[in-house]
Amino acid sequence: MEKPYYQMSYALQFLLLILLAVAGLVLGGLICGVIVVILYGPSAFSAMLNISANMPESTLNSLKIMQMGSSVFGFLIPAIFFAKVIVRQPVPYLKANWRFPLILLLLVFFIMLVSSPMMEMLINFNQKMVFPQFLKGLERWMRNLEDNAGQQTEILLQMKSSASFIVNLLMIAILPAVSEEFMFRGCFQQIFTGWTKSMHWGVWLSAALFSAIHFQFFGFLPRMMLGVFFGYFAAWSGSIWPGVLGHFLNNGTALVVSYLYQLKMIKTNPDEQHLFEWKSYVFSLLITLVLFLAYQKLAEPKRKDLQEA
Length: 309
Fold this sequence. Notes:
By secondary structure, the chain is mainly α. The protein has a domain of 210 residues. The chain has twelve helices and no strands.
């Protein structure tokens, strides 16, 4: 168990981190809003309220600026500020070190690859979830949020050039991978682990919060499982970077497939659900577990160092 870096209660740490994130989102919204006004004029804000497939490129760019700002100001800066100013030991607290066997990165790649059928099974199960009659209003609200988020994502993923692909790679894969891992596996996982005195509770609670914060309830289970993957990557290796790689691979692969589909270079529609046979699900689960055991074994020397620290 890692020793606490300071004496503030874990409940207060949690509340303070939430407040920093909210303050960061507000500040980021103001700064990015000013950038949008400078680049595209005051009318850009009202234009962003009417999201459609045929929106002007300036409106689409404004949305992307706001999206990237939310990642940086809502997650990355608050996490670094908390670790540096409050905890005053940013590198060990955020696990921002490279002191781990680099073969773990290769294992992360294969885990993300072979777990795809298992994740699809969770996606299908989650999307078919039906609420009891007295909660139908809540279900409709959740599905409306899901549909709106899906529509916005589809519009943001429009890529008519290699430049738009690079911008989307930064917005969807690189920035979220770094920002969200620093916040959830760097800070929240530390807080929950210390609060519950359990590494496993720390991993699962931070994963649940990571999924909930996206407000896409019919994708809650697969996103939480991804958070569990990233959490154990960080906890066992003592470094945030294997989780960052896994996060990047998950988001980046979806983006590349979407880009190639739009260019008609592949026939696989990323919006379709590709149902595997049950044998594929079982195989995916078993191989993923084997690779996780290998990851844990190779990371064991680092884990022992952390326990003795």
